[in-house]
Amino acid sequence: MGKIIFYEDRNFQGRSYECSGECSDLFSHFSRCNSIKVDNGGWMLYERPSYQGYQYFLRKGDYPNYQRWMGFNDCVRSCRTIPMTQGTHKMMIYQRTDFGGQSMELSDDCPSLYDRFHLNDVYSCNVQDGHWVFYEHPQYRGRQYLMRPGQYRRFHDWGSMNGRVGSVRRLIM
């Protein structure tokens, strides 16, 4: 079971809220989030309620300010635990929507889709095993998108406004 503590102020100060599971609306517990302690587990934080908006993946550690988790602001409104496994990971990515165009298979981390596949955009995806994170830019930078097992027919299905994917990382223990 995961455990995360949210703090309203930087450096773990101010009002705090401890969470050990999914929460679709954190607003009643705190109005802003400027620091976080992740005691265990992997967590995906969302800028808006109901798992919407910018996403931020955090693993065990201390985050004394929102820049440490690559946050754009101090707004965290929902969160969920992410299963971290040592099992297999497999994903198919596609150049076109609805699984069209050239397909590429991933079973490990990819710090640069362009270097590996000469590809800057992913328009659909089939996550067959494991949990993954898409990053907007190479080297695991920029906006993040949690990819759980399932089919994503277009980039809107994973919450993106465009198909830009620069790197991909498996969520493993």
CATH topology of the largest domain: Gamma-B Crystallin, domain 1
- Overall CATH class of the largest domain: Mainly Beta
CATH homologous superfamily name of the largest domain?
A: Crystallins
- Judged by helices, strands and strand pairing, the structural class is mainly beta
Helix content: under 10%
Taking all residues together, what is the mean pLDDT? 94
Q: Work out the number of β strands.
A: 14
| Oligomeric description of these chains | single chain
Give start-end ranges of low-pLDDT stretches: none
Shape type: elongated
Topology summary:
Layout: E1 3-9, E2 13-19, E3 35-40, E4 42-48, E5 52-58, E6 61-63, E7 78-82, E8 90-96, E9 100-106, H1 113-117, E10 124-129, E11 132-137, E12 141-147, E13 150-152, E14 167-170
Antiparallel strand pairs: 1-2, 1-3, 3-6, 4-5, 4-7, 8-9, 8-10, 10-13, 11-12, 11-14
Explain this structure to me?
This protein has one helix at 113-117, and strands spanning 3-9, 13-19, 35-40, 42-48, 52-58, 61-63, 78-82, 90-96, 100-106, 124-129, 132-137, 141-147, 150-152, 167-170. A hairpin with a 3-residue loop joins strand 8 and strand 9 (100-106). The chain contains one helix and 14 strands; from the N terminus they run E-E-E-E-E-E-E-E-E-H-E-E-E-E-E.
